[in-house]
Amino acid sequence: MDAKYEMHLSYLKDHDSAIFNAIVAEKERQMDGIELIPSENLVSQGVLEAMGSVPNNKYSEGYPGKRYYGGNEIIDIIENLAIDRLKKLFGAEHANVQPNSGSPANMAAYFALMELGDTFMGMKLTEGGHLTHGHKVNFSGKLYKCKQYGVDKETEMIDYDTVLKQAKEIKPKLILSGYTAYPRSIDFKRFREICDEVGAFCMADIAHIAGLCAGGAHENPVPYFDVVTTTTHKTLRGPRSAVIMCKGEFAEKIDKAVFPGLQGGPHEHTIAAKAVAFKEAQTPEFRDYSAQIVKNAKAMAEELMALGLRLVSNGTDNHLMLVDVFKSKNLTGKEAEHALEVAGIYCNKNTIPFDERTPWDPSGIRIGTPVLTTRGMKESEMKEVARFIAKALDNAKDEAKLRQIKADIKEFCSGFPFYK
Ligand code: DSN
Question: Which of 51, 58, 320, 410 makes an SS bond possible with 273, Cβ 3.0 to 4.6 Å?
Answer without folding.
Answer: 51
